[in-house]
Amino acid sequence: MQHTQGQGSWGVQNGQRSYGTVGYNSYSSSSNLLGTSLGPQPLDEYRAGDDPIYGPLSKARTKVERGYTADSEISPDLMDIITQPSEFSYERPYVDLPSPAAAFRPMKITRNIPLPDALHQELNYKHLTARMGLFEEIDRAWFAIDNRLFLWDYTDGRDFNRYDEQADTIVSVGLVKARKDVFVDDITHVLIICTASKVTLIGVSRPSSRELNLYATNLTADLPTAMLQISGTNHGRVFLRGENKDLYELDYTTDSSWLFGSGAKVRVTNKTATGMGYILPSVFGSGGKEGVENFALDPVANRLFTYHTKGEIEWIDVSGTDYITRGRYNRLLADFQAEYARLNSNSRPDSTVFKVISMAPVGIHESPRLGLVVFASNGWRAYFNLQYFGSTPILRRPPPVQNLKLEQSTFYSSGTVFAVQTDTSQPTPTSILHMITPHTGRLAAAKENGFQDPSAANMAEWHTSEQVASSIWTIAETPKTDPANLPSTLRKSNSLALAPLARQANVESRSFIILSTGGIFFAVQSRPLDMLSAGLETERDAAEVVGANFGRVQLAAMSITLGAKTSIKNQDLTSALSHIMHNAQAPQVINGANGKSILYSPRHDGLALTLARFLRPIWDSKVTLSTAATASAPSRQVLGCGESVLLDVQAKLEQLRQYTNDNPFPRMQAEGDIKLAWDQEESSVEALKKLLNQAIEAISFILLLNDYRISEIIARRCRCDGPLQSSLSNLLWRDLVCSINGKDIAKKLVTALIEQQIGQELGIDTLSEILQQRCGTFVQPGDVVLYKAEESMRRAEGSRDPSERSDSLGEAVRLLSRAGSAIFPRIGEITKRMRSLQYAPGAIELGLNCASNLDPQDRALDYVHDGRHPQDARKQFFEQRMECYACVIETLAMYDEALNQAINDVDAAEAKRDDAYSLAINSDDELFHFYLYDWQVATNRQEQLLEYATPFIEKYLQETSSDIEDRRDLLWKFYARSGEYLLAAKALHELAVRQSPMTLTDRVYYLAQSLTSAKSAASVGADDVEFISSVQERLEVAQVQQEVGRGIEGHPDMTRVEKDEVLAKLNTNLLGLDELYQNFARPFRLYEPILLILKTADTRVDDVCEAVWRQLLQNAAIGPTPHAAMGEKVVELFRRYFPSEAAPLEDIVIGVVYSEALLLGSSAEEGWITRAMLEGGVPMRECWEVVMISHDQAETDEEREFYAEEAGVLADLWVHERDSIHLAEVERFVSAYLLRTQAAQMDDRKRRTKEMMNRAKAVIGRW
């Protein structure tokens, strides 16, 4: 097909196959299919611990949501696909139809409705004026004939309303949304009728699809000019284009009832003229005035676009009350001409070729970045980018038609174009409709079939033409099928409408209304689904055509959708659909760098996609919504999706279930990776079927609740269960269907429904049967037992006969025990009611049984043993069992409290308490025993644990007693009470040495106790010498550590913060002597602890010992009485460290003591230091020998006299202890001293010394 001369050929090149006939491509690793959501997926892993229902459901949920991702991928922003840099997208914007067959025509004129005879006669009668148009919002065509207005119901074809209350000729008519602040809710639209000088507003209500009511409002205003165009926003703003080429806004308000209009105000404001032109009537204006030629209004985005006489396009923001210019562009005609010249060897077109004849808004559902499309009379289009409105628009060439000259009735809606051309070759008025529609499957086919064509992401369009035997006045799209009106569930998260492929399962074919002088024509835009259905009935290669143009998965999905329609009776069509499914490509296992993955068959992905599309209207919607609270009514929970929506989704799902049951998917027997692929697909298909069944039951469940007044059920339940209100208000349908949380919420609602029935004294057997039949997944057999048990409970609560009450409670416990884990959601409530009836056996037994039934494999215990990782899946079992145990403990606590408060019958209260504890203690549930023991410790009754003789108490104490302060004494006391003293000693030793927040004092205490217990064990024949020796050594070192701590505490040069930091380290654990010396005693100069370390280690370090002794003596001598202080210190040190390596006498210490005493001078009594050492336990002989050596080595008279005094004291004392020193040694020194001092002058000190020597000499003489 050729276009006008010079524009080139856009058809298929000779010998080149068109896009529409490309066949299947087999998968290869180089295919760009890997980049799509329908590419290879990780293999599903099935674990033994998975929930049998919700495990597969979670995997099926992944497949469904993968389908949503796939639908999003093929639903691009219009801006993206018309601006892709590709030669194809510009040079070949139109592509061949999928097939020349009629079945694959994308647009068809389906029917024609002629005008009613009466209306036809009115139009043919000789009148001054006649105008017509469409009000598709109310399914009416309008005809203004002189001063009369006719509204024709074209859906009926016969009825029409007549309005003839205007005195003047009607120039224009418009229908706009009514303002909510002016009209009552019944008035949804306002009919605006303009004559040359006056505008009148008529209220419009539509009680039903066939009924239309018009209401006079008394809202009128004078007009400065005749109005030619009327349009309004969704919020009620109204704009009009005047014959004088000015743009006006009509604003109306009312201060009282619109019906009487006493305070009605209508104002028409000129938005474009300035100066006197604003107030002068049009008669004074120039016929050649520049101004607005046309305008387009986006009622949703509140964007107004005007086209001016000189070609300028202006974008005006009319949000709220704004009227703000956002952009202008005045080079459009030049752009058109320049591009035309570029493509036609620089030939310039006639100036009339590019006359702008139509403009339409591009909705935000198509692109948030594009805002306007403008049509030239020769079919060129210009798309305006709102982000760069002042820049060159995106130009798109016209369809390949010769001599194309379009009329102003050319129409655009959501990507579809009706280009209207008058056929001047016909003798009667005839129009040619050039219908341009997007190639809806181009992107999907590229992704699924693995095409490498870089132009796949560009928009390509189909072009078809139809001849209409009349003049076309206007065109509109049926609002019901307009993508602009799609609900949020059929949009992407950014508000873009889903592509036709993605939404076709949930919407009808798009329908267009064409109003002509001969009547109404209806055009239907075929969905891909319609093409397949029609093609399979007439064309042998229909499946191949659809698969190539839309994709293999899309072909399978459409086949399943068609097959699921119960209305299909055509056996040939059924057979063709079956053939498509059975011949779909097999699944494949792909071996890649990251291991194995699976490429599911189109059959599998088609099922997942179909299921996803059927569920889409509810999947991401809330199950319930909260109504707004009013003064007279509180907020209520109502259905989040309308009942009609739920019924429609459920009907489709039921059809799909029937189809999958009647047409099972094939399975191939194979080995290796082929077998793995089929196994994976088969498991996934079964999971999808489970999700399908679950969704049907979920809808049945919610609809059933709705029949029983869901608002009341929820309100009643939420009063007792506060968190349920929050959980339910946030519950989405996908979670109700696929999550355990959804199941739990559903069970609570079922319980509320049953309680409602019981509360109304109605039987529940029939309701239970209905629940199991319609939604068995949500109501298990155990649930039914639970409801019957509820009846028994209520009988017990209402009975005054103790025997009858006991029987009813026993029956309730029996039934509840049969219900298994189904009682868990109500275990707290049930046991509370049992306690209120003083039925301890029931409360304790049910709590323990429920815990066991919840976790028969004891996974909670394994979770505890494995460290309680927060992400461990077994955590839920642990938490659920804890809830059950809490109910048992509450029962035991009740009996404890009763015993505490008993005054008269204490024995009976104690007996009941003991029976309850006996029932609990006899449980073989290890986890419960640990919970019970924890509770008793927490309530300061840990000593009671020592009385238990259970198989679990020792293990419990072993695992907990050494870490927690309240429990650490329990284990060793337990052993001691049992006579196991050696075990008690070892438990005490373990307490002392384990790293924990325990204080050092406590550690020393436990070591001492351990030593005592070990010695007690030895006394009864359980001797462990090595252990006793080890404990003894540990205790000695710990005492050294204590001494170091005391040294730090009394350190004069450390701040409180520094002391606390060091003491914290000392309290952390028991340390070794070397560490105590190196890290504490030496760096902090803790002299006495150093001596204690030397003593305990039995290690002699002479230089250290000497230095420490000197420092200690020097420190002691500081003060007003240095001699007395040093003497006391000497006594203390010798008593503590002698005999040991910390006090080596003759070699070091005694000499150090005498040398330090010498430095203090002779102000003290003679021999004071010697007496101190002797008092400290130093042998007299050791002192004598050091004094003799020091006297002989003295270098000064002062030193010699000091040691002589000490010798005199020793000699004087020797008189009473003559065995300590040999007589000859004393005699030799005494005689020498007396001889030397015989003639010497003496002071009092020397005389006293000489007297002591003489006494010793006298004693020696007697011997």
Automatic annotation (TrEMBL):
<dbReference type="InterPro" id="IPR042538">
    <property type="entry name" value="Nucleoporin_Nup155_C_3"/>
</dbReference>
<dbReference type="InterPro" id="IPR007187">
    <property type="entry name" value="Nucleoporin_Nup133/Nup155_C"/>
</dbReference>
<dbReference type="GO" id="GO:0017056">
    <property type="term" value="F:structural constituent of nuclear pore"/>
</dbReference>
<dbReference type="GO" id="GO:0006606">
    <property type="term" value="P:protein import into nucleus"/>
</dbReference>
<dbReference type="GO" id="GO:0036228">
    <property type="term" value="P:protein localization to nuclear inner membrane"/>
</dbReference>
<dbReference type="InterPro" id="IPR042533">
    <property type="entry name" value="Nucleoporin_Nup155_C_1"/>
</dbReference>
<keyword id="KW-0813">Transport</keyword>
<dbReference type="GO" id="GO:0044611">
    <property type="term" value="C:nuclear pore inner ring"/>
</dbReference>
<feature type="domain" description="Nucleoporin Nup133/Nup155-like C-terminal">
    <location>
        <begin position="601"/>
        <end position="1235"/>
    </location>
</feature>
<dbReference type="InterPro" id="IPR004870">
    <property type="entry name" value="Nucleoporin_Nup155"/>
</dbReference>
<keyword id="KW-0539">Nucleus</keyword>
<dbReference type="GO" id="GO:0000972">
    <property type="term" value="P:transcription-dependent tethering of RNA polymerase II gene DNA at nuclear periphery"/>
</dbReference>
<feature type="domain" description="Nucleoporin Nup133/Nup155-like N-terminal">
    <location>
        <begin position="112"/>
        <end position="517"/>
    </location>
</feature>
<protein>
    <submittedName>
        <fullName>Non-repetitive/WGA-negative nucleoporin C-terminal-domain-containing protein</fullName>
    </submittedName>
</protein>
<dbReference type="InterPro" id="IPR014908">
    <property type="entry name" value="Nucleoporin_Nup133/Nup155_N"/>
</dbReference>
<dbReference type="GO" id="GO:0006405">
    <property type="term" value="P:RNA export from nucleus"/>
</dbReference>
<comment type="similarity">
    <text>Belongs to the non-repetitive/WGA-negative nucleoporin family.</text>
</comment>
<dbReference type="Pfam" id="PF08801">
    <property type="entry name" value="Nucleoporin_N"/>
</dbReference>
<dbReference type="Pfam" id="PF03177">
    <property type="entry name" value="Nucleoporin_C"/>
</dbReference>
<dbReference type="InterPro" id="IPR042537">
    <property type="entry name" value="Nucleoporin_Nup155_C_2"/>
</dbReference>
